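User: Structure with adenosine-5'-diphosphate, tokens only please.
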Amino acid sequence: MSNELVLAVEDLTVSFDGFKAVDKLNLYVEKNELRVIIGPNGAGKTTVLDLICGRTKATSGSIKFKDIELTKYPEYKIVQVGVGRKFQTPSIYENLSVLENLEISFPRGRGVFGSLVFARTQDVVDRIMEIAEMIFLSDQLEVQAGLLSHGQKQWLEIGMLLIQDPELLMLDEPVAGMSVSEREKTAELLNRISQGRSVIVIEHDMEFVKRIAHKVTVLHQGKLLAEGNMDAVQSNPKVIEVYLGH
Ligand code: ADP
Ligand code: MG
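Assistant:
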């Protein structure tokens, strides 16, 4: 069985005034895969996501998403071809309801003037309901997003990305600040959404990583330190020394 490669990062390097935050990194992610990236603070994890989504431009190397070379693409085009990215702090519209937040994230949701000019057609409503259910917010559709708990806000933002149906979804520390039960539900959510697409998650909580990761990539000083399944990575002496030992 050969699995479809969705993302191929090769020799990726970014240098900030001579400091290599990411240094000749190779990373390959397949369809249906949920990859977790771990590593100490400053290892370059967030920068890798910044590079893939076009927020930061690579100094050298390549980022292939299917057949597309992303290093040459502007950020908005990278979104258009099917790459979604969630930042650490949720960026939702606090004054709008859950429903409205999902609605304006629907690909047709933004009119030419950026306003909500489209009709709420049945396919849009169906999709919103499906996503709301997935992110555990079916009963909060009319609630103003600013009133949600921190965890619910994180889910809403994941929902806003899901509604665009990205083939690659990247999440930076999605369970930071969540309660135990919210973490459990988020693990369930991530397992579900990796079916049919690829997901990259940056995470520190090793209990959580264990529950979601197919494969784990360990970064250290911008370089790949280790990669493999959870057991292999956890028993790797290099990983224990620079990361898990602390
Ligand atoms: P991590 O997410 O693994 O904690 P980051 O990717 O945020 O690490 O940062 C990796 C290193 O790159 C850090 O030393 C950080 O200070 C540096 N860095 C990140 N972005 C920039 C930038 N835009 N300019 C200069 N240095 C940066
Ligand atoms: Mg980070």
